[in-house]
Amino acid sequence: MYDFVIAGGGPAGSHFAHKSAELGNKIIILEGGEIGTPLSCSGHVSLDLWRYIPHKNKSRLIQNEIYGARFHVRGEGRKTHTFYKKEPISNVIDRVELDRCLSKMAIESGAEIKERHTVIGVEELEEKVIVKVRSPEGKQEIDTKVVVGCDGPNSRVRRSLGLEEPKELLHGILGFDFTEDFGNFVDVYLNVPGFFSWRIPRGAAGVEYGIAGSPDTDIIGRFEKLTDSMGTHIQKRCSGMIPIGPPASVSTNRGFLIGDAASQTKPFTGGGIIYGLMASNCAAKVVNSNEINTIKMYESRWRKEIGREIEMGKWIRKGYSLPRVVQEMGLKFFSGEIGVHMDRPTSLFSRGQFNAMKGNKK
Length: 362
Ligand SMILES: Cc1cc2nc3c(=O)[nH]c(=O)nc-3n(C[C@H](O)[C@H](O)[C@H](O)COP(=O)(O)OP(=O)(O)OC[C@H]3O[C@@H](n4cnc5c(N)ncnc54)[C@H](O)[C@@H]3O)c2cc1C
Prior knowledge:
This protein is of the alpha/beta class. It has 9 helices and 18 strands. The strands form 3 sheets. An 8-stranded mixed beta sheet has the order 16-12-15-14-13-5-6-18, sandwiched between helices. Strands 1, 2, 8, 9, 10, 11 and 17 form a 7-stranded mixed beta sheet that branches. The protein has a 3-stranded antiparallel beta sheet with strand order 3-7-4. The structure holds flavin-adenine dinucleotide (FAD).
């Protein structure tokens, strides 16, 4: 019997598999499609990503370096507020390659991966979990001591285990213009109710235009308006959902969720790669498939690690709904050099940020 059957071979599933297989656990990842595809992510991440990926892969993954962001309250060309650091803050990476790289690490640690194997249901019993799977070969059932739902925002495992659905699901759309752009700033447009649209220079891979917001706010229409207004030629388009949490619980007796399935995202950007990797680390460290009460330790560990950041992120997001004049004042106050870490909004109150702001006022 498997120690862990993991549904989903995205960053959360592969990283948990890698860390847990290293400890000697018998693991299989069931991936409904093919690792890394279809793409529905900008792959804009803090430099913390490189704690999880061997250095030799960096040059293959990295597309561009970002030093800061320009915020536009009233549209392109009007007054902007710039936030920056003197060294790179983040990287734009090839997200498909990231998933492939993490899954290769899982295999090298001893995990099995089966692509085109979709989890269609989970039956949790006292002594084991039966995972129901559909693949091109037909239907099958796999027994495991513990099931791990890393199957993204519309998690089937979450639904089968009766766990809480995300409080909110945003609709995100991305469009790519393949004209190269090695600029070092992302642009953020506060022109979507409760969220924003953006432009990311992706180096030789071109420019990405994106938007996210509530599905009731005509996101597709707004995306078309955005790209038309910029006179850009979109050559490729994709979309996905962004879950906003956190839920009250992400675990049962013999099952738990990681990553987007657990709504472990930043409420003020929708980014979830790093939080998913952090939570995978917590889970691999504390959950022992032979002592199922350790699953409760994962519940408390991941919240200790990122719970406060998610709460703070929710407060920052409230700023997107303030009147424009208040947004302008807030952005003006904080703009210039910054000392914050993009995954840790609580660093807004850090000494680094205080010193940066002091420097700006000189
Ligand atoms: C438009 C958009 C832009 C984004 N930009 C960024 C960004 O710049 N930076 C950032 O950090 N985050 C970004 N995100 C969020 C980021 O993509 C997610 O937080 C991250 O992918 C979550 O990883 P995961 O492993 O939890 O889930 P996923 O990456 O969604 O992986 C889940 C995997 O499970 C598989 N699966 C689903 N159902 C089943 C099933 N029933 N059985 C088997 N397999 C299944 C899927 O095929 C998929 O491979 C963005 C999201 C969107 C929608």
